[in-house]
Specification:
With 140 residues, this protein is an alpha/beta fold. The radius of gyration is 16 Å and the shape is globular. 24% of the residues lie in helices and 34% in strands.
Length: 140
């Protein structure tokens, strides 16, 4: 398999609330909700870096599409890592996420491995890590 991951889709309970959080709260660019003309089709896409997209889709529609039974949610299934260029930027993003309605689970702090990071959960419980890693050079 070639590494061609281009869309990360998050299941959400309330599509409008999630749209407001990511678009208005975090400032991610989007055309808004599309696909409403299709049963189980309403989705919103956000442009990330290098052509990667973040999608939000109602949990029940995602379960329908994938032919799986919806189960209880757990924030420890995965984290979304948002890498930034400095400790100050970690602090800025964490503050922005809190103002947008995120739950700060782990305030920004120096890490044991020499970086700086914090964690928050979006309104649907998805866990994000905002991190500065001094060993990584970021492409703009």
């Amino acid at each position: 398999m070639k590494p061609r991951i281009s869309v990360l889709t998050l299941g959400v309970d309330d599509l409008e609330r999630a749209l407001a959080f990511y678009r208005d709260g975090l400032g991610l660019p989007t055309e808004g909700i599309v696909g409403t003309e299709f049963e189980h089709g309403a989705v919103a896409f956000f442009d990330l870096q290098n052509g990667v997209k973040l999608a939000i889709w109602k949990r029940e529609d995602l379960a329908h599409e994938a032919k799986v039974v919806r189960t209880h949610n757990s924030p420890t299934e995965f984290t979304i890592g948002h890498n930034v260029a400095s400790k100050e930027e970690v602090d800025q993003v964490m503050k922005q996420a809190g103002k947008a309605g995120a739950t700060i689970t782990d305030p920004a702090h120096d890490t044991f491995w020499g970086g700086y990071s914090g964690h928050f959960q979006d309104p649907d419980g998805h866990l994000w890590e905002v991190v500065w890693n001094p060993a990584w050079e970021l492409e703009e």
